[in-house]
């Protein structure tokens, strides 16, 4: 956790928790985007690898389309693909660490996620939850 101090109240705990959930969501999004790029690089490699190496091909470099040969472009596409795969591996490592931190945070502050079914049934037998210790967090789309 970045902060060494204890959060002052339940709202601060909730804000920290929501921030952690948002960060996890952003990492998932980045992984998805990068995996799509790796897939696109694989398609390009598979399409141009069997072709004549002296054949012309075009490559986008910094918004400029340049003419090269397949022999020149193929190694660069391979390097880019390997670099993207390495970034994805590191993001997965970061994701696992963040998920572990979040689980520890949930345990420390007794955070439970309210299921959508539970929130609809509020009224009868679920009134006992008011006596429980900890922080109850609603669904991600629900604003607190």
Layout: helices, strands, pairs:
Elements: H1 10-48, E1 56-61, E2 64-69, H2 70-108, E3 111-113, H3 116-120, E4 135-137
Describe this structure as you would to a colleague.
Belongs to the prefoldin subunit beta family. Keywords: Chaperone, Coiled coil. It holds the Pfam family Prefoldin_2. GO terms for molecular function: protein folding chaperone; unfolded protein binding. This protein is α+β, with helices and mostly antiparallel strands. It has a domain of 99 residues: Helix Hairpins (Orthogonal Bundle). 58% of the residues lie in helices and 12% in strands. The strands form two sheets. It has a two-stranded antiparallel sheet with strand order 1-2. A two-stranded parallel ribbon has the order 3-4. Helix 1 runs antiparallel to helix 2. The longest helix is centred in the N-terminal third of the chain and has 39 residues. It is rod-shaped and about 70 Å long. About 6% of the residues have low confidence.
């Amino acid at each position: 956790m970045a902060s060494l101090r204890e959060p002052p109240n339940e709202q601060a705990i909730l804000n920290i928790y929501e921030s952690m959930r948002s960060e996890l969501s952003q990492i998932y999004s980045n992984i998805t985007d990068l995996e799509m790029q790796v897939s696109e690089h694989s398609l390009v490699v598979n399409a141009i690898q069997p072709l004549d190496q002296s054949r012309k091909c075009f490559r986008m470099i910094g918004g400029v389309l340049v003419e090269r040969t397949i022999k020149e472009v193929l190694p660069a596409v391979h390097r880019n693909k390997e670099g993207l795969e390495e970034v994805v591996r590191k993001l997965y490592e970061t994701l696992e660490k963040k998920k572990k931190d979040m689980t520890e945070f949930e345990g420390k502050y007794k955070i439970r996620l309210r299921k959508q079914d539970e929130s609809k049934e509020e009224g009868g037998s679920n009134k006992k939850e008011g006596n429980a210790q900890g922080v109850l967090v609603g669904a991600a789309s629900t604003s607190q």
